[in-house]
Please model this.
Amino acid sequence: MAKLRVAIHKLTSCSGCQLAILNQGAQLLDLLEDIDIVHFIEGGLYEPDASVDLALIEGSVTTPEDLQRLQHARSNSKLLVSIGACATSGGVQALRNMQDERAWKQAIYAKPEFIDTLANSTPIKAHAKVDFELWGCPITIEQLNNLIRQLRFGTLPIDNKEKLCMECKRRQQVCVMVTRQAPCLGPVTRTACGALCPAFGRACYGCFGPSEQPNGKSLGKRFAGLGLMPAQIAQRFASIHSQSPDFNEQYHHWQALDPKLSEEDKQ
Ligand code: SF4
Ligand code: SF4
Model:
């Protein structure tokens, strides 16, 4: 079976998903039995024009250059997979989509006119055909291995959108929402991390993105019952995957209920 030729591209991101790949250590050597990585700047390989079987794209489209590089990568690859929160839903940098971008630039940068960004930070699928998505911040190696293995058999992996709570149950983890009144996003977050945060007694903050059929409306009400104010509930839905439609809807719903907002702000 021929190895897959793979390019790993980075757009606007923290490079965490690329590091998750590099941090595999010995497992990376096993993965290289199945793939030839031809472009991976973080790993010291630079061939941005190479034609490949698979392009893995990390990062969101935030600058005009991101858009050009994405289009180039798409035209050079048979399959394109977005990896990580930035690529799948815009990531943390997409929080600016919900604020006055000009005001932030003025407040943060001494020379805001030097900042050349698009109006919004957007996921890959907003600009190019995406064949599959690996959600997570960062992705796990198991997700990547699974993808590569399935592609070598000529198919795509099953997109596991099961809720994190199911993982807690399988691992016999004590629920932090029931026992500690912690505002856990597990009931609306897709599983992939092994319920890492609840295993350490902490609430999930949703870094693997929305699960199948997420009932954010009910969960938000539960958070209110735990004593969170509307703005705090809005923030929980707007941390990492603020631009996924399900979490974005809950953000706006609870933000509009914040009594501190003026009528003008709410419009
Ligand atoms: S700790 Fe969170 S993820 Fe686990 S069962 Fe409770 S609500 Fe669900
Ligand atoms: S428990 Fe939630 S926040 Fe923690 S790693 Fe898993 S998905 Fe991310």
Notes: The chain has 13 helices and five strands. The pocket of iron/sulfur cluster (ligand 1) is lined by residues 164-165, 168, 173, 175-177, 184, 186-187, 195, 198, 204 (CB under 6 Å). The two ends are 57 Å apart (CA to CA).
